[in-house]
């Protein structure tokens, strides 16, 4: 660098205050709910994170408050720091600008996060080391897989508003994931979402019992078709 040439500016990053942890009873109640039932039971409040599929092979359920991270596409420095700041049970939700070229999470981060008691990752971007992620105990959801590693130049924000899978997620929102995908529920709406989910599950059990008995009525299909099937 020539004398008098200013040093390159470091990318700006912001770390906002962490929200209070949610009541454990609320998290435990949500853990009993499937994402499909949450999404159908209270669709006006439950956000579906589209395009972020499970990269783990187990049926492990993801459930916990969101620790939100926004990073430049392909850069994971602030996501690395999020692991060190996270509370046990947090779900690290990374807004990676849907970048597909460089992986933001891999085996080393997954191992460290699991050792820290973190519940899992939701990555709007790429991950790698799929063989480990499929065998490991940590639920990981991501947009895609890429073998190329990240940059670590920094920049972004922790505990702010992020976009993941087309949905806006705030720090402290409750994240639930299973093999069908990921949904997000604001804490204020979580009790109502749980109640709607339990009611839907009860109706489903009645339907399943009727199928087993051979007494299931399909009249609703005929009515929806206008009163009669085509000849």
From TrEMBL:
Q: Which InterPro entries match?
A: RraA/RraA-like, RraA/RraA-like_sf
Instruction: Tell me which positions the record assigns to the signal sequence.
Output: none
Question: What superkingdom does the record give?
Answer: Bacteria
Q: Which cofactor does it need?
A: a divalent metal cation
Residues of the region (Disordered) are 1-21
SUPFAM superfamilies for this protein = RraA-like (SSF89562)
Q: What is this protein called?
A: Putative 4-hydroxy-4-methyl-2-oxoglutarate aldolase
**What is the source species?**
Variovorax defluvii
């Amino acid at each position: 660098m020539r004398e008098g040439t200013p040093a390159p500016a470091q990318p700006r990053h912001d770390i906002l205050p962490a929200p209070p942890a949610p009541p454990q009873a609320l998290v435990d109640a949500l853990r009993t709910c499937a994402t499909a039932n949450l999404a159908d039971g209270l669709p006006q409040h439950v956000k579906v994170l589209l395009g972020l599929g499970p990269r783990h092979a187990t049926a492990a359920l993801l459930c916990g408050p969101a620790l939100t991270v926004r990073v430049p596409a392909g850069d994971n420095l602030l996501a690395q720091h999020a692991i060190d700041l996270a509370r046990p049970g947090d779900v690290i939700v990374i807004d990676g600008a849907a970048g597909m070229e460089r992986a933001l999470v891999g085996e080393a981060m997954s191992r460290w996060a699991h050792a820290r008691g973190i519940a899992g990752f939701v990555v709007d971007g790429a991950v790698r080391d799929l063989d480990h992620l499929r065998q490991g105990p940590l639920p990981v959801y991501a947009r895609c897989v890429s073998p190329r590693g990240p940059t670590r130049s920094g920049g972004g924000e922790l505990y702010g508003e992020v976009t993941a899978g087309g949905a806006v997620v705030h720090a402290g929102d409750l994240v639930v994931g299973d093999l069908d995908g990921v949904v997000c529920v604001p804490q204020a709406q979580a009790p109502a979402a749980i109640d709607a989910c339990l009611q839907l599950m009860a109706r489903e059990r009645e339907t399943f019992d009727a199928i087993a008995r051979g007494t299931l009525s399909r009249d609703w299909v005929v009515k929806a078709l206008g009163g009669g099937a085509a000849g």
